[in-house]
Design brief:
Elements lengths: L24 H12 L3 E2 H4 L5 H6 L4 E4 L3 E2 L9 E2 L9 H11 L4 E6 L10 H14 L4 E5 L7 H9 L4 E3 L6 H7 L5 H12 L4 E8 L5 H13 L4 E6 L16 H13 L4 E4 L15
Parallel strand pairs: 2-5, 3-4, 5-6, 6-7, 7-8, 8-9, 9-10
Antiparallel strand pairs: 1-2
Helix pairs in contact: 4-5, 5-6
């Protein structure tokens, strides 16, 4: 049972959410490269609607520390359960992929690894350090979990000096406990504040369509602005499978345009707000 309904009614997907399947030659080439190097991407694991566009442009968001998450968020299509041991070749393979794909902007994220003492922060830092050495012209963004409030782990990651640190809020506060039961809304805001207080660029994002109220969305934008976070992404939630939280509303593109205007008025420097936006969408376009 999800959202208090045993058989929630499925909403018809509007035309603006229909995208072409990722089957072109460039997309297949990138999938082959990633498979040969035993790498995962959040594009594939989370069934991102922009996978065709991003792969066709030769970009991908690398998913490290395996592809099994220790948490079970009700909107996420990434596998959850007991993760495997950390693959010591993962960093080398990631660098090889970045070189083969001739990337100028790399986004690195990870499954949440609550089984590791530092939540995997050191592995992320090692990825940054090796990429800086082997692909010095490449810009680096990391999309991080909350590290269970381990701010020493966060400081170690900040010390590795990625260009951007992103931590997604994902959902509004009234639905946080239901949808992200192993997370903490205020702890995530505190993490973003600590990133924003550093010389690095702080970024966050969330989805709408879970059943939140408009005032919940505006409050989340305000809360993120209060952390001095500079970049924001807002996108439409799409139910990955019938086992996931149902979509309560499909927001019109005009509504996303309004959220974008509100976010800019709250002091954000770069905002991507559109039904198909995900956290790494057009990441390189924001500049540094």
């Amino acid at each position: 049972m999800l959202n208090g309904q045993s058989n929630p009614q499925l909403l018809r997907k509007p035309a603006w959410l229909k995208v072409r399947p990722p089957y072109d030659n460039q997309c297949r080439r990138i999938k082959t490269t990633l498979a040969n190097l035993q790498l995962h991407t959040v594009c594939q694991e989370a069934a991102c609607p922009n996978m065709a566009e991003c792969f066709a442009c030769g970009t991908a968001t690398f998913l490290i520390l395996g592809n099994i998450c220790t948490r079970h968020c009700l909107y996420c299509n990434v596998k959850h359960g007991e993760p495997l041991a950390v693959n010591k070749m993962e960093i080398h393979n990631l660098v090889c992929a970045a070189q083969k794909m001739k990337l100028e902007y790399v986004v690195i994220t990870s499954v949440t690894r609550d089984d590791l003492p530092d939540g995997g922060a050191q592995v992320l830092a090692d990825c940054i350090n090796v990429l800086r050495k082997e692909v010095p012209t490449c810009k680096i963004e990391v999309l991080i979990p909350d590290f269970q409030g381990n701010f020493t782990a966060l400081e170690n990651l900040i010390a590795a000096k990625p260009d951007v640190i992103n931590h997604n809020m994902e959902v509004v506060e009234p639905l946080f406990d239901q949808l992200r039961p192993q997370g903490n809304y205020n702890m995530s805001l505190k993490l973003l504040s600590q990133v924003a207080a550093s010389p690095l660029i702080a970024k966050s994002g969330f989805m709408v369509g879970f059943g939140e109220k408009r005032e919940d969305i505006l409050r989340l934008i305000d809360d993120l602005a209060s952390t001095r976070c500079k970049r924001l992404t807002i996108g439409q939630y799409q139910q990955p499978t019938r086992k996931h939280w149902p979509v309560a509303k499909y927001y019109h593109p005009d509504e996303f345009a309004q959220f974008k205007e509100i976010a800019y008025s709250n002091g954000f420097e770069h905002v991507e707000s559109d039904p198909l936006v995900r956290s790494s969408y057009h990441a390189a376009r924001a500049g540094l």
